[in-house]
Amino acid sequence: MKRFALAAAAAASALLQPCTPASARPGVPLLPAAYRGSWDVSHAACGRAGETRLTVTAAELRFHESLGRIVRVVREGPRRVALLVLYEGEGERWRARQRLRLSPDGARLTISGGGPATTRLRCRPEGVR
């Protein structure tokens, strides 16, 4: 009975561990899937290359001329995370603490920290109207 209880506890503990894809690098925090994708200031801007595009992956924030490597992810609520990001771009490097907040429908992403908050719209995948 004791052996069964230990096995059940170990199985339950494994279920509570964060899921990471096989391609993830060990020790790299993963941003939840709901935040990932391409974001821009308008749907019209999504249809063309531009300086306002933001591409969010599991481990990076990619802006026009800078790349941010996510060092820490803390969930602050169902649609809000706090990030520690190491940026590199235009010959400089810097660290930023930022918050990402998704709208209830997941169509808007608001980024705050280190300046005025900005909101971007989720770009639709090509061919989707």
What does it look like?
By secondary structure, this protein is mostly beta strands. The chain has one domain. The chain contains 2 helices and 8 strands. It has helices at about 1-15, 45, and strands at about 35-40, 55, 60, 65-75, 80-90, 90-100, 110, 120. An 8-stranded antiparallel barrel has the order 1-2-3-4-5-6-7-8. The longest helix has 15 residues, at about 1-15. The protein is globular, with a radius of gyration of 18 Å. Mean pLDDT is about 80; it is low at about 1-25.
Supply database-style keywords.
mainly beta, 8-stranded antiparallel barrel, 40% strand, 8 strands, disordered N terminus, 129 residues, 15% helix
Radius of gyration: 18 Å
Helix count? 2
H/E element order: HEHEEEEEEE
Mind describing the biggest β-sheet? 8 strands, antiparallel, barrel
Please, how many domains? 1
Helix content: 10-25%
The geometry reads as globular
What is the count of β-strands?
8
Distance from first to last alpha carbon: 57 Å
Instruction: Write down the oligomeric state.
Output: single chain
Which parts are unreliable, with pLDDT below 50 for 5 consecutive residues or more?
A: 1-24
Q: What is the topology, as strand order, of the major beta sheet?
A: 1-2-3-4-5-6-7-8
Beta-strand residue fraction:
35-45%
Provide the residue-averaged pLDDT: 81
Structural class, please? mainly beta
